[in-house]
Amino acid sequence: MKGKLAFISLLLVLLLPSLVGCGVLSEFIEKTPSEIAVDTVEQYYQTHVYSEYDFFVCSDMALDVWDMLKAQGIPALIQIGNVETGAENITEADHAWVLAEVSPGHYLALETTTGYAVWEKDNPSYYQGWSFDNPREYKRFVELRQEYNIRVDVIEQLATKAQETYEAYEEEYDYYQELLSEYDTRYAGHPVSQVLLDAAMAYRDKIDAQLAVAKEKEGRYNELTELINEQQHELENVVSEMRGLTG
């Protein structure tokens, strides 16, 4: 009996490399989470194409791979940042990828747009940035990022208009000052006559009208400044919510 067992053991030792090579035993050999993660992103890349033209961008691909890993029991995070230069502020993030938790507290970065894993020693930026636990949080972030961009554009437009209005106010106010100076030159200290008095009153009306024009420009500038402050306050709220979504 012992001889038979020894013979079977020897036979398995001799045949095992061949069985593994042809895939007969592959289904019985459990892969590590790292291997599963790498296989997943590679297989995904082979059947998907990154295309800005079709709006199938890194966000969509990262969400897909996150879902595929979850289906295989591997926890993962959706990560955003800047893998080329790094990003100090969440609003500077311009790329999304996946961090697969291959062991408790240890992650492997998966670049879904090119289908390969990125080790921390090769590019630390893939392990920096901001992470989301699930697609719901990330999609909310995308909505907020769109709102952020819109508000930034609005603030820039308001700031341009405010600058133009302020320059117009300065021009009108300078003209008002010129009229005051001219009034003093023409009428202050001169003998009073009815003709001179009428002319002075008419000139005074001109000064008052010019002051009204300057005040109107000043009021419009103040309104624009208030709108800018309101938009900046809302922008801060948006950024705060964006940060609150990340881990």
Walk me through what this model shows.
With 247 residues, this protein is an alpha+beta fold. It folds into two domains: 30-132, no CATH class; 143-245. 62% of the residues lie in helices and 11% in strands. The protein contains five helices and five strands; from the N terminus they run αααβββββαα. The chain has helices at 2-21, 33-47, 58-71, 135-187, 194-245; strands spanning 76-81, 95-103, 106-111, 116-118, 130-132. A five-stranded antiparallel sheet has the order 4-3-2-1-5. Helix 4 (135-187) packs antiparallel against helix 5 (194-245). It is rod-shaped. The relative contact order is 0.10.
Number of strand segments: 5
Assign a percent range to the helix content.
Answer: 55-70%
Calculate the mean pLDDT score and round it: 88
Oligomer: single chain
Uncertain residue ranges: 5-16, 22-28
Secondary-structure element sequence?
HHHEEEEEHH
Widest sheet, order of strands? 4-3-2-1-5
Rg calc:
36 Å
Task: State the secondary-structure class.
Answer: alpha+beta
Number of helices: 5
Shape: rod-shaped
Main beta sheet:
5 strands, antiparallel
Question: How many domains?
Answer: 2
Strand content: 5-15%
- What is the straight-line distance between the termini? 61 Å
